[in-house]
Amino acid sequence: MQNEKLLAFVQGLSALLATEPSEAVVLQEGKSLLKTLIAHDDWLPEQFTRPHAEYYQQYLLYADPLDRFSVVSFVWGPGQKTPVHDHMTWGLIGMLRGREVDTHYFSQPDGSLKASEAKTLLPGEVAHVSPDTHDVHEVANFYSDQTSISIHVYGGNIGRISRHVFDTKTGNAKTFVSGYCNDVVPNLWK
Ligand code: FE
Predict the structure, then answer these.
(1) Predicted model pTM
(2) In the CATH scheme, what is the homologous superfamily, with its name and number, of domain 53-176?
(3) How close is the Cα of 95 to the center of ligand 1, in Å?
(4) 106 alpha carbon to ligand 1 midpoint, in Å?
């Protein structure tokens, strides 16, 4: 019965999105649903917790058939971090295990990107990104000697969305599509 929690989460978010709420409502209600999901670290199947020696891992846990949202397990090996990137849709970041450091970047008049104060996420906490307010950030494992895992939820199929990584000095953007590292997704109905 390990996947009842994840099933309850995707059911809750599907029901919420069926009401076609504003993004503010999605973020507020979605945050509450995600907090419930990550309140206990006892449901994520082991094969979606495995770090890679070189790269942070993005395991797809569930993708809405209508592309309204996706749920991804991000697994950060010691010292691993993302490039500075955007999402092109809303996103929720829920800390499940370990800690991560979330740094937002904002465009400057000269075109460069400036880092805001970094925020450390602790287990049970949820942060968000949004193209309306702050969509560009860098995420890093807080630890240099252990794995951290966060559960991310996005307003689309994030592994298939064309988005960008940035050179912070020039603000130059490069397009990328992240994909996922797993070939199979969890059976929520087991
Ligand atoms: Fe991100």
Answers:
(1) 0.96
(2) Jelly Rolls (2.60.120.10)
(3) 13
(4) 14
